[in-house]
Each structure stands twice: as structure tokens, then as C-alpha cells.
Design brief:
globular, 6 strands
């Protein structure tokens, strides 16, 4: 159960910790990719890790695009090896959380865990600050946005449906890339800074997630960017988002010329000058917003 929980939290945080970059994209979560010699169109769908497959039932255009595609691409394919590596990367290399955090921050965090989950913070003393933020986000999601019984989160749903339909299924990232982006690119001191910024926000965790949730349902990519804006350096943005998008486009450009691809990744990978939409356009593809009938 603990392994499943940190996987859930990990993806929720990688979705949320990316600053905004651009304006002017049409409101849509589904984008059609064609031109440049493609024989069939491909599709990009921006997911949100709070939502489940029941949301897809309200978006017939997304289901049609998915089932018409031969290949399905997601951020990462999950297995036991991935879970073990994430658990290992989540641990502090030396010391404990209580030893490295300011007393006031530790006390505030401890109170949050007790109030929201009935858990003492000492249970997480072996984890680094970024991992602890994932636990906070995971607990908040499970409490305020619980998944209906028998449903699957969007990314896992598309992967499972691809397997059932015997479609080619590819993961764009390796677990090493994701771990490097989320954990290894930040020093312990920088992780503490980010955790403090998160803790001392003027909005509660529930309020922050609700705002993002509402922006997603409105299919407003620009608003989601604004909500997620943080004090990240250009280098950090590059590691968290830009470099990964460029790496994905290298793979996708070839694949989309060969056959129809349905790409399901976190919605914040779509907008911006280094987002998937503009990177594919720069390679000569036509990328157009699609009305999802929602």
C-alpha cells in the first residue's frame, strides 16, 4: 500500500511543480497533430492526475481519438522496479527531517499531518522534503478528491486500455529521468526552501488543489500555468519540464510520421514556447485544438 501511495503522490507532484511560461493557447485539452507527411493524425491529450476514467466518459472526442490510434504514449510505464526506485530516491541521504527543517516548519507540518490524516510527522522523518510534499498532496487528494470505487487515474487508464486493445504502448520517460528531475536536481537546502514556500502559502492545500482542479475542468491551460507559477530558476524549469518535452518530441516526431499516436501526459506539458504544442509546430507539424464536447 505504501508503494502505491508514493507512486500516486509522485505523479501528482510532478504535474504540479512546473511554472508558467506563455499565453494565447486556445482552451482545449485535446490537440490534433497532422501534416508534415503524416498518413494519419495523431493526438495529444492533457491529463490531470486527480481525475479518473469517469471523466473520459464525458469527452467523446477524446475516446474517439484514443480508439482510432495505433500507438499510445504515456509519461512512464509503471512496474515494481519503478516503485522501488522511487522509494529509494525519496529517502534522505543523511540526517532526518526533524534535523534538517527549521523547528517552526517542522511543527507546522506535523500539525497538518495530525489534523488532516491523524499521522505523526515522525513517520516520515526518513524522507526528503520533496517526498514529504508528495505525501501532503496525496493525502489531500485522497481526502478531498477521492477516486470513486473501481475507477483508475487517467494515465493508468489509458495505459490499461492500450494493453487491452493490444495497441503499442510506450513510455516517454525512463524512471531515472523522472527521479533526476524531481529529486536529484534540487539540493537539500533548495528542497527545504520549496517546502517552506509550500507550507506558508496564503491558501490551504485544499484550496490550491481546488483552484487547479477548476482550471483543468475549464480546459484553461494558461490559468493552470498561472496557478503553478513558483520561484524556480531557469535551470530548474529546464530540468523539470523543458528538457523532458524536447526529449519526448525527438521520439514523437518519428513515431507520428509512421502511424497515429495518442499521447496522454500532464496538461502542463502542452503550453509554452517549450511545450509540446510549440515544439511540434517548430518541427513542421500542424497542431490544432479540438473541441471535446464538454
Amino acid at each position: 500500500m505504501k508503494k502505491q501511495f508514493i507512486i500516486l503522490s509522485f505523479f501528482l507532484l510532478t504535474y504540479g511543480l512546473v511554472p508558467g511560461q506563455s499565453e494565447g493557447n486556445t482552451r482545449s485539452l485535446l490537440w490534433k497533430v497532422h501534416g508534415k507527411g503524416t498518413q494519419q493524425p495523431s493526438w495529444i491529450f492533457g491529463t490531470m492526475h486527480l481525475l479518473t476514467n469517469t471523466y473520459i466518459d464525458t469527452l467523446p472526442a477524446v475516446k474517439e481519438a484514443f480508439y482510432s490510434s495505433k500507438t499510445v504514449a504515456v509519461e512512464l510505464l509503471i512496474d515494481e522496479t519503478v516503485q522501488t526506485k522511487i522509494m529509494e530516491a525519496s529517502l534522505l541521504k543523511e540526517g532526518t527531517l526533524k534535523q534538517i527543517l527549521p523547528d517552526s516548519s517542522y511543527a507546522l507540518l506535523d500539525q497538518w499531518f495530525k489534523n488532516e490524516a491523524g499521522i505523526d510527522l515522525t513517520a516520515f522523518d526518513a524522507y526528503n522534503p520533496v517526498a514529504v510534499m508528495t505525501f501532503v498532496m496525496g493525502i489531500a487528494q485522497m481526502k478531498y478528491f477521492p477516486n470513486p470505487p473501481g475507477t483508475m487515474q487517467l494515465d493508468g487508464y489509458f495505459a490499461e486500455e492500450a494493453r487491452k486493445g493490444k495497441k503499442e504502448l510506450i513510455g516517454l520517460d525512463t524512471i531515472e529521468i523522472q527521479i533526476d528531475a524531481l529529486f536529484n536536481s534540487f539540493t537539500t537546502d533548495r528542497q527545504i526552501e520549496l517546502l517552506n514556500e509550500f507550507l506558508y502559502s496564503n491558501k490551504s492545500v485544499q484550496e490550491q488543489i481546488t483552484l487547479l482542479y477548476d482550471a483543468y475542468l475549464a480546459q484553461d491551460l494558461v490559468k493552470m500555468e498561472e496557478l503553478m507559477y513558483g520561484s524556480y530558476t531557469k535551470e530548474e524549469i529546464g530540468v523539470l519540464l523543458d528538457n523532458r518535452n524536447k526529449y519526448w518530441v525527438e521520439q514523437l516526431s518519428t513515431k507520428m510520421n509512421e502511424q497515429s499516436v495518442f499521447l496522454a501526459v500532464g496538461a502542463l506539458h502542452l503550453p509554452g514556447e517549450n511545450g509540446l504544442i510549440e515544439l511540434l509546430r517548430a518541427r513542421g507539424f500542424t497542431v490544432e485544438a479540438v473541441k471535446t464536447n464538454h
